[in-house]
Amino acid sequence: MPEMNLVQAVNDALRIEMTNDEDVVILGEDVGKVGGVFRVTQGLYDEFGEDRVIDTPLAEGGIIGTAIGMALYGLRPVPEIQFGDFIFPAFDQIVSEAAKFRYRSGGEYPVPMVIRTPVGGGIRGGHYHSQSPESLFIHTAGLKVVCPSNPYDAKGLLLSAIRDDDPVLFFEPKRVYRAVKTDVPEGEYTIDIGKAKVVREGTDLTVIAWGAMLFEALASADEVAADGISSEVIDLRTLWPVDIDTIVESVKKTGRVVIVHEAPKACGFGAELLSLITEKAFVHLEAPPVRVTGWDTPFPYTLENEYLPLQHRITPALRETANYVP
Amino acid sequence: MPEMNLVQAVNDALRIEMTNDEDVVILGEDVGKVGGVFRVTQGLYDEFGEDRVIDTPLAEGGIIGTAIGMALYGLRPVPEIQFGDFIFPAFDQIVSEAAKFRYRSGGEYPVPMVIRTPVGGGIRGGHYHSQSPESLFIHTAGLKVVCPSNPYDAKGLLLSAIRDDDPVLFFEPKRVYRAVKTDVPEGEYTIDIGKAKVVREGTDLTVIAWGAMLFEALASADEVAADGISSEVIDLRTLWPVDIDTIVESVKKTGRVVIVHEAPKACGFGAELLSLITEKAFVHLEAPPVRVTGWDTPFPYTLENEYLPLQHRITPALRETANYVP
Amino acid sequence: MQTQEQVVPIRTPESSLNDDVITVIGPDGAASGPHDPKLDSEQVLDLYKAMVSTRTIDVQLERLQRQGRIGFHIGSLGEEACILGSAAAMREQDWIFPCYREFGALLYRGFPLQSYVDNMFGNADDLVRGRQMPDHYSGRAHNFGSVSSPIGTQMTQAVGFAWAAKKRGDDVVASVYFGEGATSSAEFHTAMNFAGVMNAPVLLLCRNNRWAISVPSEKQTASETFAQKGIAYGVPGIRVDGNDVLATYKVVRDYVEKAAAGGGPALIEMLTYRVGGHSTSDDPRAYRVQDEVEHWRRTDPIVRLRKHLEVLGVWSDAEEEAFKADTEKSLKACIAAAEAKPKPSLASMFEDVFAEKPWHLKEQQAELESGPRAKSGH
Amino acid sequence: MQTQEQVVPIRTPESSLNDDVITVIGPDGAASGPHDPKLDSEQVLDLYKAMVSTRTIDVQLERLQRQGRIGFHIGSLGEEACILGSAAAMREQDWIFPCYREFGALLYRGFPLQSYVDNMFGNADDLVRGRQMPDHYSGRAHNFGSVSSPIGTQMTQAVGFAWAAKKRGDDVVASVYFGEGATSSAEFHTAMNFAGVMNAPVLLLCRNNRWAISVPSEKQTASETFAQKGIAYGVPGIRVDGNDVLATYKVVRDYVEKAAAGGGPALIEMLTYRVGGHSTSDDPRAYRVQDEVEHWRRTDPIVRLRKHLEVLGVWSDAEEEAFKADTEKSLKACIAAAEAKPKPSLASMFEDVFAEKPWHLKEQQAELESGPRAKSGH
Ligand SMILES: Cc1ncc(C[n+]2csc(CCOP(=O)(O)OP(=O)(O)O)c2C)c(N)n1
Ligand SMILES: Cc1ncc(C[n+]2csc(CCOP(=O)(O)OP(=O)(O)O)c2C)c(N)n1
Ligand SMILES: [Mg+2]
Ligand SMILES: [Mg+2]
Asked: Residue A126: which region, alpha, beta or left (left: phi > 0; alpha: psi -120 to 50)?
């Protein structure tokens, strides 16, 4: 079984589905000849031609607006937004149009489309090459949001996303792009959208993370294991609709939970997770659920590692939560 | 003391500050001659001229982008977005620019600007004339968000907002525009941004609401009072930065809380409030905090009153929360 | 400033002059000139009837709204020629992406009047299930898009749709309607630019009806015409008399054929006038003078076409009365039926958000269905 | 399709032909023609030195980045003439809104080299407090805006800024830089349209350097030129040889004066070429042929101006070497100083989000300052 990094795994999934399905087209800035600024679409332009891998003018609103039109016709566009931070010029097309199209047309017009975009910090990108906008899209009814943490999941989830009949935001943790390699089976396989994965079993507390922060959570889990704290770590994989059963089951077992994400705290997805847990497992909670997140500031350049919820911030949170006595 | 509705109170505040300060300018679609589709700026065009009350071309991105430029020069623009649902073409200018300008420039470039826009349901506006986008802006570091529930607060808060040195989103509950009249003092007075108001004192549970839903919360509070349930109702007035002290103090007293808002539940502001309360008053909670919100669907037309968290949905929540036994 | 003379700016075209506006029907009602589509009287009569019934429906729906029986209507008073002339010029396999004033085009395409009226009431039979405001219909079965309120969003969608048809090798042209105010939107820019670069078979149909709610066209842009905006994108821009149904039909038809033949997109500015308020929520007396309205009433597209019918020697007052009466009769019947229909079910509110209902929507539906509203039958 | 002949589309201007491109410095190095700004040799030399030091700094910073001592640099190799010619044409009271390649203009305005280098290191003395990437500076004290990454956003801001100056009755013109790729952004459309309608004293300066990362200009738009996009907005569009510093200076200066006199906005397309990669993160060999680069090297703006200096009989190789050596020396000193400076404080991360720090940021700051990073001194 070949080893791949996340860039290669996403590229592999795209190649497979473009081979399977003539209707799958890629469009975006620099996705063609050069294969994207992160080289995720490398080789596809040569293999499938400029009608299947389209270098567009510099306008995210146009990329998503035309992609919606293609989906309305029956294609399965996979637009790329070069950085998640640059998705905002397309925000209106995503939240006002793609998200509501099926509903507002009484089911006449589904919009099968996967918006791929790199998110998160870790490459010293400062304000505009580091953000994690997931909660804005989770708040918008009609969108699915996926964020794999590793190459294996990335390939299986992307194949599911492209075959899904609803618009999916597919967030790729750019910090992981080349940092992590896993075995990735050749050919087709899918991972269900909406299913989380318990990546570490434990009994004392539950840690919920996704994307690049999963590895920080695991590192902290190992660190506190030395003090005899047993952490269960959940990789959400799909952010919305979230796998509530896996979360609640774990929290009922541990009674304690720490949620980790890069985005700012205020109205971040951590708030929704904390709320769902409190609503559904209130009587099982032995400690207040804790959020370890990016600060409520713009994303800084030099102090990136002080902004991000890295191991140095997660570990104390795990200790406090595990040792909490009312 | 004259009686005013919310439209008149906002208009009065605008007139006062435009008279005080030459640098205050209004710009937006239809704000001039006709005084806005809700007539909030009526008369200001005649009084202050087309250089102070500007009918712009049909482009929200241009309204906010040029308003930011005016603010950079030293003016205090008060752009109007005709409906909160149409703020998304300006989303990039608001979240990438206005919100981050002071920070990214090391304090060189503050952006004093008040974005006024009508929000919420209640006028049979369907998908695109009914939404409440507050959580998207609360999640974005660098923005203040205000939403008055009545004419008196609207005037005092708007005067504070225009004098504030940071960008403020001023959400006007359109359902309240002409439905509520209160005494409004003539001339100047301000209400501090960041201060909530306990509008009904109670001991059994805390109800948190704002804007149009405040009146539904109060109606339910009265309804359950008949069964001897004593509700404390808080009108947030400023959504962000939220008045955490008033909230926590009340919850510590009651131990039970119901949060009401029109926006969809997932990653709505209710999630942040519930999380803050759980983090700061965990040991005082006698029942799981409850959210009564819009459903996680687009905003419907015919079933508007089944979508909104009106009295018929708040009252059962108050009863259950008050009677909850673990 | 004298140094200016030395700098040669890009020359702006003279084509904004009125004599560049394509017209066919003269003051005497006769059709003439190179743009006469030379339709037979059947076809002309067919267009005339569509325009008359469109207006009849508009008038009735406005009344209905004033009576409080429907919540809202946005109409096309005075714009019938540009809407129906262009719609008729599209071939059966072509697609129409609406703005919000084109119900006449929808019905011309064969969309059932009853379905349209059900949409005006948002009842259980409304094809969009009462989820959107009146006049926010959707007509996939008739190669017709879906109305949404945000200005301009349909334009880039139409471009992508047309490109997709071309990629599949289908003989399909897409047309998209919008007002002159919408040319200020980001969507217009992106749609025009992508259409040009992709050489998409799409026609951008601009109803220049002079007003964007209360904002007159001269406040939308400093360019002399809207058609000249095509120059920024290497896309031809044409101005046609939008109150002349024959001229509109011909120009649109020519560019449909050009696009179908691989000739790419076009921007067509249709000069017309919004005789009514912006919608039933608007009173234009607050911002425009009645003289202007009167001036345009004299160029009323229906009066003009009627004159042409006289030249053709078809149609009579009697036939007209009978036709109007029929239209009103069938409309009244549809209204009566629509008004009697129930609201959509509570369950319908939670459907079609996704292809399959996720757990959280099942929970929320159960919550509503176990609440007082379910019992009271809302 | 024969019916086409009958339809007269808006004529597109011929002004996209190259002979419409304004040039002053000929192949022989002599300045001639109506657009010669007739600067004295001091002024020309001043421009030349600015261009040379800009390039020297570019070269050094690229090296620094390859050595891993700075994280990123985005330069202006080959674009020095259009950047400095236009910057020099702005009057002292005028404002410059940058894209991200205009550090040469920033320094020309008197911004301290040390401050610029501190920004490249994001250290404690960086005026933007290490919050943004390198080359994302801010220069209010020098009538210079703030760099942000999102393409195009500075354009509408410059229009509003210019309008505000006009409203205040101040004699200020704003100029805003952007690349040809940015003309596809919504911001370009809105900025041009608002500038035209508001008759704002603003110059939109398009650096047409042929590439938008890997996308060539012909894929950005189907229009023949970028200047002709002005026609869509009733705004004059001019094309100038952006590798000819004298022509650029003159054209920009003329329109500065026109705007200052109430003549309104202009779009100026400056034809140049991005000789280097898009940034230090980019390797252009992946998408363009070396011949193209070589061709443009022959029109190198510095070589061309040097030739003109020879005609003027000023400047020598010796002076040039000495000047470059000086520049490198002072740059090296700034780098050494910047590298030795500490990081910004943890506290600085929580400042300037708002004018006053709210409770939640105080809490978050306390949390970080009580954690291991504070102790480890990060
Ligand atoms: C993005 C957005 N902004 C504002 C509005 C409010 N609005 C609805 S119609 C309209 C005017 C449109 O004018 P025009 O494009 O000329 O079309 P017309 O109504 O004249 O047919 C405005 C401002 C909207 N629907 N969407
Ligand atoms: C909204 C947005 N989309 C995408 C990007 C990524 N990006 C940075 S520069 C660039 C190309 C810009 O080309 P051009 O406008 O010609 O300017 P140049 O770099 O050539 O000076 C792109 C696509 C961005 N910064 N912002
Ligand atoms: Mg109009
Ligand atoms: Mg470029």
From this structure: left
